[in-house]
């Protein structure tokens, strides 16, 4: 009864109509030949794999979890087979460069693929989910020898990779990392230390695993400026078959994502190779983390999509009570009941999910498209603008989408009533799985500080000005159309307030640095709500031309719903930010 | 590391100072002799039981869960022992009438006891949790013979009881119940049908289990007006040792509350006895449900308290990053970090928990106190006023507290970062356990409709006027004090808006009945936020007299925090209700 149907029509709407892919890609030589038919075929094939192979392995993955034994990890039933099919289909290589064996397709399509993967089976997708980030990191920073040896196997999916930052005493604060590295005689290094929370640190999907590990060289300065990045394979040597001194000491018992092995790894003088320059490891790894954070955001979207489509179906199947307004007081026979989809409270929950999901899909895929622009557009200014926007969109997408993914899964769970709390109905797994994304890849609190303190206050508003320009364009375009004028005015009004409060925060930061930290989470939500407003305005503008077609009518109505019933939360966030000077007492330990 | 410390000082503050128990109980002959020392002794003894016996069984209860085998249920390790101690301590009888073997103490103290029980071990507390409701129901509606035979054993804890409403096709809509009852020759009935989601429907804590079951007599009208209530023991006969035809066909696999057996029960011509009048079963059961719903609300409070005290402790132990404002840019040695409690985002999360927890405790215990007034106060008008208030407070406490319990547990989980997602740290169990309370005893959506449509629109605002009077008194009392004037003004302002929107909703309901249903959930949150405002105002007024003592200073500061940083959500709820005429499209199944 828990089923996934790939929303292919929705994807094509965003890619082809909203983002206008034909026109965009015509400007980028790398994608100039990409036609709609090719895209449709790719998405269709992805949809088949996800529906037929991946989604069916999700529930068992949760029920059986990973099994740890003597340093090895066995993934749940169906995971190995699904991974084999995934590689056979060429999916790991989708957005990788042809020089390394990739298909050279846009990140935009990779993001569509990943939304589907996350909807269908988040735990499984944790294994390949880090690959694109690892690929980007190595391609940008590794030596030609490392690239030649490792990259093609990562691109083909033959070997998977990991990202090893966290240590027991160093979580949000990577500056506290103590893993050590010492230079060997042959250009390699010996790395020793313990890492925790390593997703896919050990498993049975691939014969080798390539760890990207932050550690300190002997002469390293303290803090984050003393971290270097190392590539440490599970197997080394000319044939890649000599075991390296990397040990998996256990896997975590978690609330969800039970099919994903969260490993404690011990490097005991393991052989590794420097990636990038000494002490510049965090910068190298940030290449990985930016794309990784977009993908974590897509997890929130994927969960909300799954919750939405299953809740809509259940709400039409489940008969309880008469529809309100349909003379609820008349006596009725036992068994006489209407679908709960007709209850106003349920209907509003479902529409709220739709408004978030479809708005987030637009924002998320736009962000992925900007990754393509930033990398491949021939115009340097376009690339630089895209990078500016990406630096802001990355924390917003990560923080806002994952918080919504959890909150919306919980809202959807209510639709099932008591059944929602049972393991057999799927939604409670979605709720548990979705919770992790608010924590890893930088907690949502860290994302909020990254957005407001580092990215906005940090450059005194230079980059955020581009985001305001995007918002202004969307508002203006709506105000030029009779049927969208109201939405345009509403968007304009909230963006003016967003801009004003942003300037105040920038101005105050020099005098009172703690204030921005205190309201950062409210600010991130404000930005997320405004961004969804921007894209719903664009969708409405586009749909307004074809209101006689049900698909576009529905888009237009959902845009109105978003502005009427969801966007008001921006007023709350503004009020909380406006009240930022009210004291927050410190909280002591009880005596 | 997951520990419970009973907040005894907090309980005594609410009971003795805020509710002024000495003066209250002096007015009620049943409690006139109850002194502070007795109360302190009772709470102290309860605290010992909860801390030493009940809390330690919580984690294993989750890990091992209940075991179902051939119709029997084995509870997790420690549950039987804890139940024995609970009975030996006389706790089931605390607020029961001395005529039936009870201790005749106020419900107010029973509510304090239950907050502790729920904090420490929600799953275990599901077994005795329904007892007080069952006791009230039988005492009010059962025949003298049934009372004489069953009530003393229920009061002593020797037998537990259940509440059997739900059937697969009849959840929120009890009018769809199909379980049938036929009169036998001896005054008893034969009941046949299947019930699901029966908490404690089968277990090994007591030798007999007394089921209170809704079913239909042969001549019953359709819908809710054709339901009769039956008492059906697991064992019958003169010695209570003949097995009745009640079968447990299985227990549910759930997201949480794994130590609580959620049973499918089959009545296969089981012998039972009518409780109350034929076809009036729902009214009889509502006696049970009103007190049950208050207790479900206390589950939300108990979880939030547990999350708060553990998060505060962890935030002081965990060292990551420097405190903000404490020259965050200076270079620092590895290992140099401050407790995360000093991070503005964490501090705000902790204060938000405290503001909700302490405010809810005041509201929850006031509600329990009103149960005492409604039953025992000699003045009929006071009893009737208390009943009016209770009819409104019950859905608010149930819906608002349980939603907050889950949301605050999730907020607290972020304090642990990645550790919060692990099974070993306790908070993820709290999050999973707390989720159920939003669903059972009437989903929170049902509570919202009960509050706004049935209770407020239903009597055209008669009862809610009493609630507004309480709010006005609190605001006025603050405005009379220099140090509380601002809070009084703020409370007054929000209550005026609450009152205005309430009147509009009442006026509109005749013309447009669906509107109230659509905004009911926002209205319930608005009412909950205002109520907490009322009690924070009262707390501030009281604390303002003793600001040189840290305990009262902290209360006063938390009241201000509530008004500055939490109450603004009322503005959002008002905005959403004000926007109630904006259309909500219906959501169709995909083509």
Description of the structure:
The structure is a homodimer of 591-residue chains. Chain A starts with 7 loop residues before the first helix and ends in a 13-residue tail after the last helix. The first copy, chain A, has three domains: 8-138, Orthogonal Bundle (Butyryl-Coa Dehydrogenase, subunit A, domain 1), CATH 1.10.540; 159-286, Butyryl-CoA Dehydrogenase, subunit A, domain 2, CATH 2.40.110.20; 296-307 and 350-578, no CATH class. Helices cover 56% and strands 11% of the residues of chain A. Chain A has helices at residues 8-18, 21-26, 36-54, 58-64, 79-88, 107-129, 131-141, 144-156, 281-317, 344-376, 380-415, 427-435, 444-457, 462-479, 485-509, 513-543, 550-566, 569-578, and strands at 67-69, 72-74, 160-164, 180-183, 189-199, 209-215, 228-233, 235-236, 242-243, 246-251, 262-275. Chain A is built from 18 helices and eleven strands. The interface between A and B is large, with 104 and 103 residues.
Features of this protein?
Butyryl-CoA Dehydrogenase, subunit A, domain 2, 3 domains, 11% strand, 11 strands, Butyryl-Coa Dehydrogenase, subunit A, domain 1, globular, alpha+beta, homodimer, 56% helix, 591 residues, two-stranded antiparallel ribbon
Largest interface: A-B, 104 and 103 residues
Oligomer: homodimer
Q: Could you spell the SSE succession of chain A in H and E letters?
A: HHHHEEHHHHEEEEEEEEEHHHHHHHHHH
What structural category arises from helix and sheet content of chain A?
alpha+beta
**Overall structural domain count of chain A:** 3
Continuous helix count of chain A: 18
Number of strands of chain A: 11
The overall average pLDDT of chain A, rounded, is: 95
Q: What is the CA-based Rg of chain A, rounded?
A: 24 Å
